[in-house]
């Protein structure tokens, strides 16, 4: 290829070095099966039949001309026949499975199933007295026997179990288990015939295969070894090495997603290449022959696939790696694309559900980009004077981004604009971390001290990846909202095609460069020199932290502010403070100890100094009090108790403690959520914008006590109690008489917050209402016209699982 050729030249001529003969077969299996899953089994049958017939006629002609495509057409005929026959029939059997009708009626069922994948945790942010963490797991299984309403049902389909984490999270693939619960219809284009919402623990457990038990023992050993690392790194390393994200911090998971790095925690071709490549390099250094090297690498590959588990991306990478090693043993070069084609066709025929799996699609497309685009683009960059290593470092993430962006946009409804940069920065440390992690996993059970040493060697790499993801996620415009679904994906694909075609033309390239330069000249100064956020002279900001509370109160000193509550999880409140430029927090007030008010405390301490943490008299729930006490003690930060009448002053800000006046004589163990809410610290803040009443989650009894005690509750700004719940008395709102009402609430919450009657009562007293679920971060300011609200307008979405 001419190094001066255009990087977008990816037509057939530029693919001269690749063997494309298995591509039609792979496309037939994948697209034909996907069409059937979306539209009906008969579409798969028609696609497979058409491909087989076309391949037979074309093959006869190719034999006459001795074309090199004969073998590829033969593969297409075979795959077409398999798609039209067994694959279509499997889709038809799933569509007509008797369990679907029972699921549509919502019947109760008891069934014996065989687990097919490791349980996937469903994480939830903390709320009220429930701490954050994994409360549910999703388990893929195949049905062995079913009883629906005391009547046997004939089914051999696939099912998803939605089960409580306790008792279910430790199940392994191949294990037989009996469960009871309520059926619900399955969603999406897949072979799953029903979903069972499980009640109670599993019973009649069967043993898992010995190799699965061994793999779980190694994974558990790696998690135990990682305990020597800091908490975030300890959760990340198992994800990098074997895709085990069970201990991963929700904050790190969100940051990796927003910065376009989440693929690093899904075992795929990159992990297989690192593992097999390391074995091959070692054996080559020892002058071992190619066939013996390939056999040793194949053994390592088989062990790694079992260790990582039978996820679609793992199986795709494993099959592709096995084909590549076979090609190495036979002395064939340039086998990457045939290996990919064989893997796609073979796996989809073996398991048609993979055709609709997003992880499988991302893995295949990313690999195709690395095989077809990255080498040509790297060669083009080298031809323009870019050093070879840097050229490959730029071309690889760019090619992966171009190929996967349409799928990601359609799946997530967003596009990460920083993913190329973050992946370039991350690439150098992924291989060392993976190699050290795999060695620690294998060696640790036999030589623990060596395993701990190897794990410690992964700490710098893991820390670097977290730093890159964190800064990438915080970058202005890092994630752009995009239409979701098929139309959103097709729109991204169309834009990329237009861009690739445009840059092939000299004048179009000039126009694109001018447009990009103009956009940078306009947007960068606007964001950096005169940013829209934070607004000048803000007095208070209600942070969008999801379903929870966090209010920042400015002092007269730039970068110094008081924080009241920290939201339900680490991350969002830290990001809010960073956007506001707050690096010093003299005091954090925790209004009460419910999880949605204390969950983000840990992240506030990062990158900023904190003077003290203050609480009210409440000590319930006990686990939350212990968590706060332990965190402050570990960091050497004073933990104070506020009392009624206490006054605190800073330049430009004062706080007066008005409550809690609600008194309970119940023990900590006897206090329910309402009692804990009514024990919230109530503060009145004096700010340049006026008086701000901070009410925590006080409900009707505490509001009545405040009014009965004659406390001065008048305020221009009200932080509405309990996320705008219906337990807010109209008389209380009339006495406060706010001009502005801040409702801190999460989008899509299941609690009915804010309640319509509360919003109507706020409107009746003339308050301007701002909600974090619709407005994002919301600032109270004083401008030339007086008191005003400014909304950042980027609300946090529904809680992620």
SSE topology:
Layout: H1 23-39, H2 41-64, H3 70-95, H4 98-105, E1 108-115, E2 120-124, E3 133-148, E4 151-153, E5 158-164, E6 176-184, E7 192-198, H5 210-225, H6 231-242, H7 250-258, H8 269-285, H9 290-308, H10 312-330, H11 336-350, H12 358-372, H13 374-383, H14 388-412, E8 414-416, H15 419-443, H16 448-457, H17 459-474, E9 479-481, H18 485-502, H19 506-528, E10 538-542, E11 551-554, E12 561-564, H20 572-579, E13 584-585, E14 588-590, H21 595-598, H22 601-604, E15 609-610, E16 613-615, H23 622-635, E17 639-641, E18 647-650, E19 653-659, H24 673-678, E20 682-687, E21 690-694, H25 700-708, E22 717-719, H26 730-736, E23 740-743, H27 756-764, E24 768-771, H28 772-775, E25 778-783, E26 786-791
Parallel strand pairs: 5-7, 12-14, 13-15, 14-16, 16-17, 21-22, 22-23, 23-24
Antiparallel strand pairs: 1-3, 1-6, 2-3, 3-4, 3-5, 6-7, 8-9, 10-11, 10-25, 11-12, 18-19, 19-20, 20-21, 25-26
Helix pairs in contact: 1-2, 1-3, 1-11, 2-3, 5-15, 6-15, 6-17, 7-17, 8-9, 8-10, 8-15, 9-10, 10-11, 10-12, 11-12, 12-14, 13-14, 14-15, 14-18, 15-16, 15-17
